[in-house]
Queue: 4 jobs
Job 1
Amino acid sequence: MADKNATLKLPDGKSLDFPVLSGTTGPDVVDIRTLYGKSGMFTYDPGYLSTASCSSSITYIDGDAGVLLYRGYPIEQLAQHCDFLEVCYLLKYGELPSRSQKDEFVNIVTHHTMVHEQLARLYQGFRRDAHPMAVMVGVVGALSAFYHDALDITNEQHRIISAFRLIAKMPTIVAMSYKYSIGQPFMYPKNNLSYTANFMRMMFGVPTEEYKVNEVLVRAMDRIFILHADHEQNASTSTVRLCGSSGANPYACIAAGIASLWGPAHGGANEAALQMLEEIGDVSKVPEFIRKVKDKHSGVRLMGFGHRVYKNYDPRAKLMRETCHEVLEELGLHNDRLFKLALEMEKIALEDDYFVSRKLYPNVDFYSGIVQRALGIPVAMFTCIFSLARTIGWIAQWQEMISDPEYKIGRPRQLYKGATRRDVKPIDKR
Ligand code: CMC
């Protein structure tokens, strides 16, 4: 029961009271679920600028303070002390695993990494030059055709096995999309490697040679996974929830999430940031580029800067910057042209009043493209890596929705602005 109310004054002079609900932290929400029944009116909020679409206990962001918590734990601590599968466990179950819980979890994931052999043949139906995200949407959607033994979402065992399959098979599917695009043989998973080392081997190994695991690079990839694992109710997560709200199976929901993530305003920004750095080309061109960005008529934006929610330094960007240093150092690329350029851009932007007054700080994408490029990942694969990492977030959010007693099929309403009722004329009279 809410102990606070918000009063809405209607145009006819009537007043309606609505309960104000408080979470454990963050802004209160006005519960307007009874508004239509009481007043015959809807609220209007395209883009959900002021609308909480659900309640959740998974991820919390304080954009003004630059805080990101998974299940209450700061992202900085998770990135420093945990590996990706521990973070998966945390997002899925709400608590960090003990050593034995972790061992069991890792063991189950490790033994689900292979895909149905016929799924491998599905790839042959795609053009080799298809965008790997197009392939991902198709292949992940097709998982429900291969694993239809566990699609009853009301059955807890089915939900559990589907979740494990998705977490375990995504690295295999992403790596296969890459191998297919370059015409190399698929690499089967190897169970004596960690989740992330196995992914690196499936991406960059070949059957003719022993793959040497580089722990620094594996740790960098693992960190990319951790930083992208969840980000509360963003477009792709909301897509997964909306899709799942109709009772669709989890593979179909995750495929829908991947489709949403593919958009340049969501998962594609690191690609854009890297392209921007390539275009600028040299540190000497930075002041001129910054001048263009500040000119409202130029239409140029500093890609990898600014965020709808973070009005402070994106905490993920700080960690990605650190990882960038480590990876470039390890690979002997500390004089990397684009990294130097990025540092110079960041320095200037953080001092410039245009950016300071608008609270425009680097976001995670400013550095993640440079790290992935150094790891040898082609630009077209960046969003696939993001979808691999975000799968656990989507699963956790989907599971939370399914078990929420207030769960209903998502059905937004609209402000109708089309023609009112009219009659159809016979075709020769139109
Ligand atoms: N470069 C230059 N000016 C900018 C930028 C930028 N990157 N971002 C915002 N502004 C200016 C904008 O012109 C506006 O100025 P004014 O008030 O004078 O009109 C002001 O800052 C507010 O901008 P806005 O577009 O209203 O802000 P928003 O919260 O709607 O946009 C954003 C957020 C991420 C779309 C935007 O900052 C942007 O386009 N950034 C570049 C693209 C990018 O890096 N996207 C990745 C986001 S992180 C992805 C993730 O978390 O999944």
Note: The beta strands are 4-9, 15-21, 29-30, 59-62, 67-70, 73-74.
Job 2
Amino acid sequence: MALHQLPELPYAYGALEPYYDEQTVRLHHDVHHKAYVDGLNNAEAKLAEAREKGDFALIKHWERELAFHGSGHILHTLFWQNMSPDGGGPPVGKVAKEIDRCFGSFESFKKQFSAAAVAVEGSGWAVLCYNPGFQKLEILTAEKHQNLTQWGVVPLLTVDVWEHAYYLKYQNRRAAYVENWWNLVNWEDVNARLDTIGV
Ligand code: MN
């Protein structure tokens, strides 16, 4: 697997002045975003090492690191590409129509998006998303982006490990439930999901 790379900014460091200052862009991209890329590569390397050794003693730690740095890399890449020195103003084209359809008007969308962004507690994000399942745009926020795993992924296969999913039969023996669940996996369904995203 190739290592993740810090993407170049699609404009000069000072190109977003006066709205976004050069010094902040430099630090934010070269230091903060780079730390996510390095952290993601490290988490993937440690997980590969764990698979080789068959030693998953630190799995919780590395899964958290994978989600934290993976989402950080994905969201920062989106953030840089979402801005342009020639940006601003009202939306045009498809997104303008979808915003009108889903939020009533650009003005009401903008108010909701700004309110959501300002209200995020601590560090986080406001994100305009398209939910293919619901076939609509949504404004979502992330207070801790690692809690939402890697933004942008397409779920393919899931096991429900909430206690309600197994407690009647397995009580506290979650590992036995998970082991038996493997006998039920519908790989044709997983393949069909891969087909829909063109993998
Ligand atoms: Mn940031």
Note: The beta strands are 125-131, 136-142.
Job 3
Amino acid sequence: MLNGKRILLIVGGGIAAFKALELIRLIRKAGGAVTPVLTQAGQEFVTPLSASALAAEKVYTDLFDLTDEAEMGHIELSRSADLVVVAPATADLIAKMANGHANDLASTLLMATDTPVLMAPAMNVRMWLHPANQRNVATLEADGIACVGPDEGDMACGEFGPGRLAEPEAILDAIIARLGEGPLTGKHVLVTSGPTHEPIDPVRYIANRSSGAQGSAIASALVRLGARVTFVTGPADAPHPQGANIVPVQTADEMLSAVNAALPADAAIFAAAVADWRVESATDSKIKKTKTGKPPALKLSENPDILATVARKRKDRPKLVIGFAAETDDVIANATAKRARKKCDWIVANDVSPETGIMGGTENAVTVIDKDGAESWPRASKTDVARRLASRIADALAK
Ligand code: C5P
């Protein structure tokens, strides 16, 4: 995937620095090479020896190490990589980068480089939200520095909120999206994901329990194989896939417009749980309770079937159109009938009965149905299901 591409990895000093070691391992496993640079504070959390052992490379720590200057100066070092990754990017490193400081090896490399930079911030939630940090991050983004994370969650300091380092897998996805090559390089793949929200009035809506986790995982897996991915998503809980072009929508109508705007594509995967119905005349003002206590009657009308619209014969029909069938009874029979009705090439069927724990869970058990029959895959993580599906898609598009 990374085909020998070199990452200059700058490790700042924060409790999340240990995850940089896992990132080194993942980058190498994906075929990349890593030159680690540890800041002085970074060395308090990660030793140069462990970074060097995992990278199987020399680790750089000191701007004024003359032996290193003889081997490779900081200017050359800063330009020797295909991508500079700062993980964790602490508040201090971010401030230095935003203001052009160059008073240690890491900040000097960041000033001297003409290579694209990706940063993965990690810090306490108050520090992340501090106006000074937010200003610095905005400055860096305006300078063209890409950012992955931070995630939201429990922090080592006992607080909760945004500030956690993105998971190493997500940082790797962001790296691959910038540098990677694979069997889907040059292909455009469209993915719909998440639920849709159909308004009743300005404050209420009809929705469903889709988390968007399987759709996000599929988009990530496709990015990893080199695809250019357009990810049209309803309001989902799952994190957006790194490296995809994200198009957020609310309603089925908006999703259809976004899908039409994204075509042509080589393949389209419809993982969204689109609401079948919308409220026919959603009101512009909030519906009030009446004195009589009579509840309002909601008249529903059918939403456009996005999958069926794209799958029917049309000039820009993708070569491969894949639908999902979330069923609770007669899964395979219903899904097979759905494939014929919607005229898609494959249907990915799954049993979403509550006892399976699949809807909103981390695992999935799917059956892929195509013109030749049904292939059931063992229950696995949504990430693994996504990878297997992405590789089946790559094979089909290669034919
Ligand atoms: O008919 P049903 O909702 O079960 O079909 C599921 C498949 O159709 C999924 O792939 C879903 O993304 C797609 N679909 C759609 N537009 C709709 C309803 C479903 O694209 N309005």
Note: The longest helix spans residues 382-398.
Job 4
Amino acid sequence: MNWLARIFKKSTDTTPARVPQIFFTNTLSGTKEVFVSLKPGMALLYSCGPTVYSKVHIGNLRAYIFSDTIARTLSAAGYRVRRVMNITDVGHLVGDADGGEDKMAVGAAREHTTPESIAERYTKLFIGDLGDLNVDTDDITFPRATDYIKEQIALAKTLEEKGFAYQLADGLYFDTHKFPNYGKLGGLSQANLEAGARVELVRGKRNPTDFVLWRAAKPHDLQQWDSPWGRGNPGWHIECSAMSRALLGQEIDIHTGGEDLAQIHHNNEIAQSEAASNRTFVRYWMHNAFLTMNGEKASKSLGNVVYLSDIIEKGFNPLSLRYFFLQAHYRTPLSFSWDALAGAASALERLWKLSEEIADESGRASAPSEARDRFLALMRDDLSTPQALGTIWESLKSEEYTPAEKWGLLEAADAHFGLLLVNPPTPKALTEKDLPEAIRKMLAERIAARTSRNFKEADRIRTDIEAAGYCIEDGPGGAILTKTPL
Ligand code: AMP
Ligand code: ZN
């Protein structure tokens, strides 16, 4: 290679010299496997995104912080990560299987508007929630299902031409008996899956696990398109197969989702994609366990959900939720309570304080350490976040490490956790108009007490203000108030 070619190679080659070993639990094998990407130094990651008919709840957000932690761990190890997360803006059906009402129609009726404006509103709120949780949304492609109708039709057409589909009055169906190993994800046999499948009233359906690729339009359907099978709309599963293929290619490295998606949605995605391409669709299937509320899955249909906006309204920094998620391993169910969130919030505050001290002591110069190596090894061992957090606390408090070694550990932790550890946020000072009337009155009384040198009274008022949920600090321009997390 001449010198010019060598320089050129150096500036364009994204392959890291040597990527460290990373282990992930693959739902396909049910075991922890070493991660080997299709293309050296590059990881293709697809995550099933939300149906944008209402706000996402914090259970959903657990799934997205999980995929962000995968992406961060891969990036920190030197991979270039290409991320896609679909936005379902076509109404697939309420309920676990293909039955029930169209979600986008439910949203449109609830807000007396169109599916398009519902989709726009809730997509914006969703991406805003991710941003509040410090997910780099500029780094993710968010394809809308309605922008990929052509690709979904083309994929269904291929499946029909290859003999995997049959047409009924209700639409075009995938014949699961034609696909060998149907149900391989989660190790379920065809017989198991059939026994568990919902009995649906679809005349002519050949097998209980068969699923719709293209649904024939009902007269009242708000969203419908032309297709080789008449007017209609795409089935629940085809959008992920089609958009993953269009944006990342026929074979990808990792596909994520909550564990509820594995059995039906992801087995159906595998059937569609692999029947069409004769190739392995996804090398590593990764699923997060549920966020629960009082022992039950947090779910909109059970009505036991909390939104990120509730958390922010109560005065918590949204990153407290991120810290709360990281306290549990992604494959373990996690029970939400406000007390547990408050615990996470105060731990994060303490970590931020500690980080400011270490920034001063180290002058923000970092050095490698055994603690940082241990942290990296834990994150690369199937994202062992609880143990990795434990290592951070233990090492930052220890006398064994120099400030520069501690700073090096904080930098690594920040890259993986996205908790703003090396740049802690400063609490937002509240202006007068943010404060309730009662607090404004107390502040005025405190100023009067101080002016008349009645410091005892001023202190009493300060205690009352703090008891009402505010931090108060006296600055040169007067008292500065911030909200104390509940
Ligand atoms: P959905 O909009 O219901 O398809 O959910 C979007 C994502 O959130 C999927 O990956 C689900 O598996 C996941 N999910 C839904 N509820 C929960 C929960 N309570 N805990 C964790 N993940 C969830
Ligand atoms: Zn999906």
Note: Residues 338-362 form the longest helix (25 residues).
